[in-house]
What does this fold into?
Amino acid sequence: MIRSLWERWSTFFKGDVAAPGGAWLAPAPRGLALFTALVTLAGLVAAEEWLRAYAAQSSRALARVEESRRQALQSRSELRSFAKLKSQGVERFKKGLSSLTQSRRSLFEAGIELQDQKRVLEKVWEITSTYVSIDVPGRKVRLMRGDQALQDFPIAYAPPAAFGGEKNAPPNLARIVSKERFAAPERGQYVETNGRLLWEPPQVGSSRRANALGAFVLFTNGPLILHGPPRSRPDHEAFAHDCLGLSLYAATKLFAGSYIGTRVVFDPPLSSFKPILPAPAAKKAARAPKKTFARKKRR
It folds into this structure.
């Protein structure tokens, strides 16, 4: 447009055509017209440069806006990805929390089961490691657990005394097969006849057996019976068994600390001793020993 205006004004100055502005510029001198044309041209050029600068600035601003838009879209995409990852993480956390709860519950139950097994094993070890040791030379009976002596008590007969006419020495190793808080009058018996089992339960009341053994009675698989003081001495001496002569305190502690199957061990073995047969009290000598006096020698 500016080029076309310049061409028209140049022809006007040459005198070929009329002024481009119309009839109102015709009377003006050519110098003024030339000045006006130059000012207009300079204004148009300045306007074009300003428009170009403004257009460039607008283009740069548009580019910045586009870059911001692109970054915003990228940030939105990243935020959506983060939100998706967060939701997936929350789901995994919920599942992991449920699994952790189940694992803790299983671990707690396993711990309780292990504690129960530990208590059972400790009880089994206590039962299997507990035994009764009879020190014949020291005239003591000891309640042992492994190599440790828990308690020891004095005994009246070492080796055991045989009552009721028994002369067979008890074995070197015996086991407790039955325990009775109070000795029953007669132990239960069963008889099998023609494929039928006839059971006769223990009787109640008083008998020679109950009076002979008293309380806290431990029966072994041999003739040896560990029991407290008898109720009747004659019944005790007439009842066939081997006895250690325990006190009530010793019988109570042995009864409480032993189990069915507890070993009874003699130290040293009884094979090196002879069984003691209780005999009636020896009669006193009728005559007292005579006293002898030494005579003094005369010098």
About this structure: The mean pLDDT is 80. Residues 21 and 59 are 35 Å apart (CA to CA).
